[in-house]
């Protein structure tokens, strides 16, 4: 047996929960991968061409600060280039945001169940997680913003607001977010994680940029992984006020976003209309999936993302296995429920056939 060094791991690292990736599906396998909220469409030809062109330059380090992409995003969003920080997926940007403001013993408040990277990123930053349960009953799956505000203490440095919430799907509403922000001290950072923003159709959803403009302590987190279909290239970004943005940049992994990824993200911005047309198809299929499930008698939270959530309790693992056997790979949260991504139309058809057998 190989000898391990006698070096102790940090207790926080030894205690980290696992991040469970969606199951890997071999290319060409006869199964739909509905476990990671990915975009089922392959990259556009223009994006593939940009990737191929960029490949010729990979003997050089990339532009460390992704200048062109940062400027394109800033122009697009109507903010300064000093307010945009691009990183290696929004999950890395989140880790860097936390490392910028959280120290040992500082608290980070977030909803739970929510994105499974949160407890890991908080612990790695040296902070303490304060998890606030989601609402139950008729509002099941929604964030409980009053309870989150009430959980803030003198030690709280950051509050995470995941909207739409992964894995349950609902958004926060403009009025409840304003009430919440009015209750949050101005020296506490509020991170709006908008990974699924482009799938939101609820007219009561807040406009993150307007909220950021009005509240200096609000940071937005966005990604090219979902609507823009670049999950495999790892590009996300934060919108934050300049001093904070400079701090996030300072703690970021040097050269963290590859040249290939930067060029692909720029090509995706250039092809936005076409990509957002695909999002329309996914939103239409979300509606078809949700209505199909409701017709079958399922009670589901109101999903504004590219996935739906089933509260299945103890039957979760069994149902996930049944879906897999039928050709749909979904994401189980043991003892809680299943998250099913909106994929190809055929995947929706298949999943509706499977869920009908569960009633
Ligand atoms: N935030 C949320 C809520 C997510 O669900 C995800 C992806 N699962 C991310 C952030 C991270 O996305 P990425 O790192 O690919 O940008």
UniProtKB/TrEMBL annotation:
The modification N6-(pyridoxal phosphate)lysine is found at residue 226. It catalyses: an aromatic L-alpha-amino acid + 2-oxoglutarate = an aromatic oxo-acid + L-glutamate. Coiled coil: none annotated. Residues 32-347 form the Aminotransferase class I/classII large domain. It is an enzyme of class 2 (transferase). GO terms for molecular function: aromatic-amino-acid transaminase activity; histidinol-phosphate transaminase activity; pyridoxal phosphate binding. It comes from the Bacteria. Aminotransferase that catalyzes the conversion of aromatic amino acids and 2-oxoglutarate into corresponding aromatic oxo acids and L-glutamate. NCBIfam families: hisC (TIGR01141), PRK03321.1 (NF002878). This is Aromatic amino acid aminotransferase. It comes from Cellulosimicrobium protaetiae. The gene is hisC.
């Amino acid at each position: 047996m190989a000898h391990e060094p006698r070096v102790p791991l940090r207790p926080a690292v030894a205690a980290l929960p696992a991040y469970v990736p969606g199951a890997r599906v071999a290319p060409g396998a006869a199964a739909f991968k509905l476990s990671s909220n990915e975009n089922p469409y392959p990259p556009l030809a223009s994006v593939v061409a940009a990737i191929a062109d960029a490949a010729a330059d990979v003997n050089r380090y990339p532009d460390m600060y992704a200048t062109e992409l940062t400027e394109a995003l800033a122009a697009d969003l109507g903010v300064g280039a000093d307010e945009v920080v691009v990183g290696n997926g929004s999950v890395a940007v989140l880790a860097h945001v936390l490392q910028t403001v959280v120290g040992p013993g500082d608290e980070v408040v977030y909803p739970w169940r929510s994105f499974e990277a949160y407890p890991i990123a908080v612990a790695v930053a040296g902070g303490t997680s304060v998890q606030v349960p989601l609402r139950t009953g008729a509002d099941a799956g929604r964030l409980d913003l009053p309870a989150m505000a009430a959980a803030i203490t003198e030690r709280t440095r950051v509050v995470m607001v995941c909207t739409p919430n992964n894995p349950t799907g609902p958004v926060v509403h403009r009025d409840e977010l304003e009430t919440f922000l009015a209750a949050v001290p101005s020296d506490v950072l509020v991170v709006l994680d908008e990974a699924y923003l482009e799938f939101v159709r609820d007219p009561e959803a807040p406009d993150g940029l307007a909220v950021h403009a009005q509240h200096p302590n609000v940071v937005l987190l966005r990604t090219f992984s979902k609507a823009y279909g670049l999950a495999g290239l790892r590009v996300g970004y934060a919108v934050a006020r300049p001093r904070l943005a400079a701090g996030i940049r300072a703690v970021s992994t040097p050269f963290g976003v590859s040249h290939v990824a930067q060029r692909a993200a720029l090509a995706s911005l250039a092809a936005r209309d076409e990509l957002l047309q695909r999002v329309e198809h996914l939103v239409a299929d979300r509606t078809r999936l949700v209505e199909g499930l409701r017709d079958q008698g399922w009670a589901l939270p109101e999903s504004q993302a590219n996935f739906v959530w089933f509260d299945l309790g103890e039957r979760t693992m069994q149902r996930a296995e049944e879906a897999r056997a039928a050709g749909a790979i979904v994401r189980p949260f043991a003892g809680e429920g299943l998250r099913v991504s909106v994929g190809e139309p055929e995947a929706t058809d298949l999943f509706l056939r499977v869920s009908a057998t569960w009633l």
